[in-house]
């Protein structure tokens, strides 16, 4: 395979950082920072594309502040709905593949069975609504035209950026006890796993469409916090609490501007079959990311 020029948006984000470094084996990665390219500026994005002429686009950039998205309607819509449409339109004209990222928050969150890629969507918050519009724009522009992959993931964390793992460790350094929501169920997903998945997809080029991209297993935010603390303590981290000091609360007792789905379980059979792999457990991925974070 020839080396191609790959545009990675949001290269300073959790997923963008890992994707940019993983895709270096496939070609020249171009990953502009916010200072180099404001993704809110559609004209600037079009000019950048015409100038750089990428041969592959990967789009992990997004507006990910779920609560702020309720009031910051314009920025949420621009990044999560308009930008994917603009990139997909470019990909259609130039017949280049596009990998886009989406979220568990496009699903309504009721019931207890895992969502499949064909489940009905029905987002419960502004972030989820805009992300769904982005997914639909990508499908509308690229279905039957060129390879495109919409990776729906959940609860992303990494050694860098803002995420639940780092927040919990920060709180645990001086708080003797914590309360964490225990009625939202999903799969914590490491950014490094997503980077491996993107690499495999670009190499294997399975059928285009929506794929769930999360590790195996599921948990609550409370149990995720407890697992973070038990693994950190095992690695000799000094914490002011133990996993037993984390108590569960319901979502209704943790009021936030955006409503969040209770059931975020995503079935991963489609991705595993398409790539011929068995995805790792969320606990084993946490161990790898935690090690990287604690060593730095
Ligand atoms: N985080 C999560 O828990 C989940 C994320 N996802 C999806 O996965 C994908 C990756 O998420 P994640 O890596 O966590 O996101 P981050 O919030 O870590 O990164 C977002 C990236 O987008 C960039 N960006 C945002 N607005 C602009 C702008 N106006 N101009 C230029 N750059 C901009 C940010 O730049 P800067 O660093 O300058 O802010 C950053 O590089 C997204 O599509 C998200 O919707 C899905 C499920 C869960
Ligand atoms: C900090 C904290 C959070 N929580 C709860 C709030 C929330 O329900 C849950 C997770 O908090 P966060 O702020 O990380 O949640 P949030 O930023 O909404 O996470 C979501 O981000 C977007 C981008 C996605 O696409 C989703 O998959 C999901 O990862 O934990 C507690 O119960 N106690 C705490 O001390
Ligand atoms: Mg968040």
Automatic annotation (TrEMBL):
Catalyzes the reduction of dTDP-6-deoxy-L-lyxo-4-hexulose to yield dTDP-L-rhamnose. One of its GO terms (molecular function) is dTDP-4-dehydrorhamnose reductase activity. It catalyses: dTDP-beta-L-rhamnose + NADP(+) = dTDP-4-dehydro-beta-L-rhamnose + NADPH + H(+). This is dTDP-4-dehydrorhamnose reductase. Pathway: Carbohydrate biosynthesis; dTDP-L-rhamnose biosynthesis. The keyword Oxidoreductase applies. One of its GO terms (biological process) is dTDP-rhamnose biosynthetic process. InterPro entries: dTDP_dehydrorham_reduct, NAD(P)-bd_dom_sf, RmlD-like-bd. One of its GO terms (cellular component) is cytosol.
